[in-house]
UniProtKB/TrEMBL annotation:
Keyword Glycoprotein: yes
Key words, A-Z: Cell wall, Cell wall biogenesis/degradation, Glycoprotein, Membrane, Secreted, Signal
Record-linked SUPFAM superfamilies: Barwin-like endoglucanases, PHL pollen allergen
Gene Ontology CC, one term: membrane
Organism: Urochloa decumbens
One BP annotation, GO: cell wall organization
Name of the protein described by the UniProt record: Expansin
PROSITE patterns: EXPANSIN_CBD, EXPANSIN_EG45
């Protein structure tokens, strides 16, 4: 009898199981906040403000430090499934998943051991209550989950919300499809070339330039690698505090 064959078969089966587990996602945990209507999730560390106006709605989540990545994950989409195979799985709603957008940070609570559920090294989603209740039983409070980053599907085009002052432009870039996140951004006035922007905080990108009185165009590269120029987004009479909607969006 060839003793190598059972060993090879076991090795193949183990590899297949590991590949299947990876395809199904990564383990984490989830809680909820913001009330039954999700109103308490508005605003947050990505700077989106009213999440309905910004294109994200109530199916959102605050990410732990490990996932938030200093704001680079703002706008990403995750499909989350309650994990019935782990402790706490009895509080799952079996066979259900929900896709949420990352719109906030769940900060560590260092009054608790290890910073609590959102402490360093812990992949955790503090979801809006309406999103969470798609997959978990309210009384549980916290459930084990499996999560996977997925492509975002958005309604309408990318939005640019403009703040700052005369020589400082701060732009919140919202409602990205595809990867959901900005990899790089540029702004152009009627009388300038393309000026590269840098991330300030959350989904806010800045440019140290005096562009008041000029029409504005933007260029954005998604973290998925797609590059789009959004020409003539704001007229020369744009004002700080206004948001401008485009008709273009990302696919990856």
């Amino acid at each position: 009898m060839d003793m190598a064959k059972p060993l090879i078969l076991r090795t193949v089966l183990i590899a297949a199981c590991l590949a299947l587990a990876a395809a199904q996602g990564s383990p984490g945990t989830a809680t909820f906040y913001g009330g039954p209507d999700g109103s308490g999730t508005m605003g947050g560390a990505c700077g989106y403000g009213n999440l309905y106006d910004a294109g994200y709605g109530v199916l959102n989540a605050a990410l732990s430090q490990t996932l938030f990545n200093d704001g680079a994950s703002c706008g990403q989409c995750y499909t989350i499934t309650c994990d019935t195979s782990r402790p706490g799985g009895q509080y799952c709603k079996p066979g259900t998943s929900i896709t949420v957008s990352a719109t906030n940070l769940c900060p560590a609570n260092y009054a608790l051991p290890g910073g609590g559920w959102c402490g360093p090294g812990r992949p955790h989603f503090d979801m809006s209550q309406p999103a969470w209740e798609n997959i978990g039983v309210y009384q549980a409070g916290i459930i084990p989950v499996v999560y996977q980053q997925v492509k975002c599907s958005r309604g309408g085009g990318v939005r640019f919300s403009i703040a700052g002052c005369n020589y400082f432009l701060l732009v919140n870039i919202q409602n990205l499809g595809g990867s959901g996140t900005v990899g790089a951004a540029w702004v152009k006035g009627d009388s300038t070339g393309w000026i590269q922007m840098s991330r300030n905080w959350g989904a806010n990108w800045q440019a140290l330039a005096g562009l008041v009185g000029q029409g504005l165009s933007f260029a954005v590269s998604s973290t998925g690698g797609q590059y789009i120029q959004f020409l003539n987004v704001a007229p020369a009479w744009w004002q700080f505090g206004e948001t401008y909607t485009t008709y273009q969006n990302f696919y990856y």
